[in-house]
Amino acid sequence: NAGVTQTPKFQVLKTGQSMTLQCAQDMNHNSMYWYRQDPGMGLRLIYYSASEGTTDKGEVPNGYNVSRLNKREFSLRLESAAPSQTSVYFCASSVTGGFNYGYTFGSGTRLTVV
Amino acid sequence: AQSVAQPEDQVNVAEGNPLTVKCTYSVSGNPYLFWYVQYPNRGLQFLLKYITGDNLVKGSYGFEAEFNKSQTSFHLKKPSALVSDSALYFCAVRDSGAGSYQLTFGKGTKLSVIP
Fold it and tell me: How many beta-carbon pairs below 8 A join chains A and B?
């Protein structure tokens, strides 16, 4: 089925370890986004990529880096994980400009940093 | 700047009763408004949107929402709640006049439908 695929679904890291969260979409969307979801905080935008070759910071970018590898793939990297980065991470994609369709979300990555 | 508020952290309603989940927004231009639903351990799913036109929009699973420009609100409604409607609901807004295409989400409202 068409959609947004995130890997892994679950991950436990030790403080200071690094990891990359992968996201791929097969809907030919131009724009992709990374959000984190924390209880009582809703969804907060970490980084986004309006189109292939561009990336921009969102509301909470500190401690993260991103790569828009191609039109399909948008990865999120934690260089040195901290307990404050324990969260559920969602990737989303959308058609840029023709915004009538909203976002399509992946199923999330549940990350625990100990 | 664009923002959205969901004033209720939780809404409880009896099965069969009408439900309302509230949302208010702030934008400098015209709003694009969305509702999403999240079931446990799942990603967000699109329910409905308001872009322009009729103030009452209908979406998936029998949900509807009313856009009220004077009150800057976009409340989600359903005439008869089902237990299966129990989930986390997010309102989101984008300013049509803004230079970016980012959505800003509310903090979410947990809906519990009691049998």
Answer: 58
Per CB-CB distance under 8 Å, the chain B contacts of A50 are 100-101
Phi, psi of B84 (to 5 degrees): -70, -10
User: pLDDT tens across A54-106, in order?
Assistant: 999 998 999 999 999 899 999 999 999 999 999 999 999 988 655 566 789 99
**What would the two tokens of residue B103 be?**
């959505």
- Among partner residues B49, B92, B103, which is closest to A100 by beta-carbon distance? B49
B88: its two tokens = 């986390």
Secondary structure of A11-50 in the HEC alphabet? EEECCCCCEEEEEEECCCCCEEEEEEEECCCEEEEEEEEC
- Rounded distance between C-alpha atoms, residue A113 and residue A27, angstroms: 32
Query: Is A39 within 8 Å of chain B by CB?
Result: no
Task: Of B15, B10, B37, B39, give the one whose Cα is nearest residue B92.
Answer: B37
Beta pairing partners, A92: A33, A105
Across the interface, do A99 and B32 touch by the CB < 8 Å criterion?
A: yes
First-to-final CA distance of chain A: 35
For residue B4, give Cα distances in angstroms to A56, A97, B77, B107: 22, 21, 17, 9
Letter for the amino acid at B43? G
Q: Could you give the 3-state DSSP secondary structure of residue B108?
A: coil
pLDDT at A101: 63
Greatest distance between any 2 Cα atoms in chain B:
46
**Which chain A positions have a beta carbon within 8 Å of B41's beta carbon?**
108
